[in-house]
Amino acid sequence: MHQNNVVAEVKNLKVYYDMGDRTIRAVDGIDFTIREGDCFAIVGESGSGKSTLGLSLIRLCPGKVSGEIIVDGVDLMKLSDEEIRKFRCSKISIIFQEPSSALNPVMKIGEQLMEVFTVHGYSKSEAYERSVKLLKTVGIPEAEKRMQSYPHQLSGGMKQRVIIAMAIALNPRLVIADEPTSALDVTIQAQILNLLKNLTKSYGLSTILITHDMGVAAEICNRIGIMYAGKMVEVGELESIFSNPMHPYTRALMTCIPRGLKGLLKPLPGHVPDLSNPPEGCRFHPRCPYAKDVCKKEEPKPLHLDDRLVLCHRVGEI
Ligand code: SF4
Predict the structure, then answer these.
(1) How far is the CA of 247 from the centre of ligand 1 (A)?
(2) Domain 6-91+172-310 maps to which CATH number in 3.40.50.620, 3.30.450.40, 3.40.50.300, 3.40.50.720?
(3) Which of 227, 288, 297 to mutate to test the pocket of ligand 1 (most atoms within 8 A of CB)?
(4) What pLDDT sits at residue 237?
(5) 137-188, pLDDT tens digit by residue?
(6) What is the DSSP track for 70-96?
(7) 314 CB within 6 A, ligand 1
(8) Ligand 1, closest atom to CA 292?
(9) What is the pLDDT of residues 299-311, one digit of tens each?
């Protein structure tokens, strides 16, 4: 790995929710690195903690967060509320699943987009010019006219394009996209994915794509992290993981993908454990066909094999 092109480093990240009588350990000691130009997919079933992870990376998570989140050399955990507000958009931004709830319904698209610039010191005329240019970049026709539209006058796909425009407006180092196409119909999904793919290349963006859909990950990502019950159980290059999945959970996910790389994760037998009371040892052991006694007692330690990280006692044996 080239350390000099590292954009983000996440070290021992934990997110706990205190529920009074119990603590939900939604993210429980996660490490990964994002390099320049990476599109890193975080894939897992519902309840794996992946959306909590995404929110915590931009310090928008209501839970108790600990660990290090270093973006562009700055540990976000050490920033004040004021500093993190400035850091958002300029260095790190997020695209949410539901574009309607991310836009202000009573403000025109143009005003919302221009605000991203004016808050960061641009004049109104510069903000206007840049906003129009951005709308064109993300494929919105009649950009000047659309600046005057309210969110409800745009289709779901167009709204998501506006959100993407806002996310890339200030050329951030890292963009987090949390299920960016789940709320859209299939044709529009493909267009938005294509847009993200092209922007990642042309803007040299580094992206984290959170998804439950292996097909989406395969479509635009070059690296992948598989998340299970608050842990990252396997991390590596996408092609390498698809051709040789080492963790039994990754293997199980692969067998649930119909027609090669495409398709949604079908439910696996069993379910993701209650994160306030996860199983002892390896959290996957109740669902793992390869589980041995040691798996029920001892938590596996991360094993680094070239560019791969695997959390399993039985790597090499299976
Ligand atoms: Fe399965 Fe054991 Fe590996 Fe966990 S540590 S994934 S239970 S083989």
Answers:
(1) 8
(2) 3.40.50.300
(3) 288
(4) 96
(5) 999 999 999 999 999 999 999 999 999 999 999 999 999 999 998 888 888 9
(6) EETTEEGGGS-HHHHHHHHHHTEEEE-
(7) yes
(8) 2
(9) 999 999 988 999 9
Give residue 296 CA to ligand 1 midpoint distance, Å. Answer: 9
- Dihedral, 44, 103, 94, 85 alpha carbons, nearest 10: -140
Run of H or E residues at 157: helix 156-168
Tell whether ligand 1 has an atom less than 6 A from the beta carbon of residue 283.
Answer: no
pLDDT at position 1 is 44
Q: What separation in Å is there between the alpha carbon of 245 and the centre of ligand 1?
A: 13
* 75 vs 3 pLDDT, higher one: 75
Does the pLDDT of residue 291 top 80, yes or no? yes
Query: What are the residue boundaries of the structural domains of the chain, listed by start?
Result: 6-91+172-310, 92-171
Give the mutation target among 313, 317, 318 for probing the ligand 1 site: most ligand atoms within 8 A of CB: 313
Question: 3-state DSSP call for residue 276?
Answer: coil
Which percentage of the chain shows pLDDT scores above 70?
95
Which whole-number Å values give the CA distances from 206 to 2, 45, 177, 295, 314, in the listed order?
Answer: 15, 23, 11, 35, 33
